[in-house]
Amino acid sequence: MPSMAKVIAAGGIMDDYFLQISKTYGMVFRVFLWNNVFVIVLDPECIKDVLVTGNHQKSKRIYSRLTNLFGTRFLGQGLEAQIDNKHWVVQRKHFDQWFKPHYVRQFASEFNEFANQFTEYLNTYADGKTEIHTLDTFNKLTMHLLYKVAFNVDMGPLLGENHPFVTKMKTALLGISVSNKNPFVAKSCYNWYFLNSYLTGQETSASTMSCMLFLLGQNPGCYKRLQIEIDENVGAVSVITLNELEKLPYLDMVLKETLRLYPVAKATFRETASDYNLGGHLIPGGTDMFVSFYATSRSEQNVRNPTEFLPERFHSDSSESFSKYASTPFSAGPHTCIGRKFAEIEMKIMIAKIIQNFDFELIPGQTCELTDSVTLFPKDGVKCFFRQRKTA
What we know:
This protein has helices at 2-9, 14-25, 44-53, 60-63, 85-96, 101-104, 108-123, 134-151, 164-181, 203-218, 220-234, 242-245, 249-261, 293-297, 340-357, and strands spanning 28-33, 36-41, 57-58, 68-69, 72-73, 132-133, 267-271, 276-278, 281-283, 288-292, 358-362, 370-373, 375-378, 383-388. By secondary structure, it is an alpha+beta fold. It starts with a helix and ends with a strand.
């Protein structure tokens, strides 16, 4: 724990510590956190074994904590917290039909509607002088969109004040992270404010889009290439459909490379039901396995120049070859994120609309250090200046 604390104090996250010690102990090793033992898995082939081939069950010790948080019901027995695999399979089958590609395609008009509202919102401040906190604005946008599409709830105009769900969601995520790291935190009355918080499924998209702007702002060559692709293929298109998105392969590469560096969910936890041989290591039954998507995709043993932003590495003709399990930001196997297609379409349309209408630049002095609260988000929020584009 003290070794991990040093990495975090220097601006890293827990998974940076795993990445650091993997250089000494290899891509599968065990760590001791308090009284718990975890097998850390960073090797792509072992990840395939854990998530796909072996299809190990979810960790009871970790996911049961999501049922109740700080003494009150949190996620209950929903899809994320359900640890009874038979029940989970039934739940997943019910939800799967609503997230199939042909069904998600129907939401393209809603995605465009909210993207247009967002560009109108940005127009109000796009003077090149007003600081815009993109993470906050994206959180608000994706929250409004999710509740409209999923529950037909109108959360009001984007220019209005934040809805309570928007402002309290980060607190809920932080509560999970804190309770996992420190088993005694729930005993203190000073932490009871976590009880009044909520959790939704939109923060991951907002964080990814903010990180994408940060990476593009830091890499002007990539930014210009994406701008040209959008101008030439959808520059005059008011409603971006899935057919238009297929004309934007570089946007797809930019999204994949952003997710490689900043995965939607940084890790997942599995448990061995019985003694199991994983990559030559005999792991006793009942052992928790920690698959770090973040550390795996940043390991130089898995990806060439892993800290560099190189969208071209995902081109079909790229000379770089790496396992598809080296970058699995939506997890893999039966437990792959059910909202993956929804999130990808949403983010691509939003970013394409922004590039269509605005130029942006990062406000100097920012870093992309991360806050670790179950999901990852940029600590500085990615602040930008926006200007309306003057194109023919």
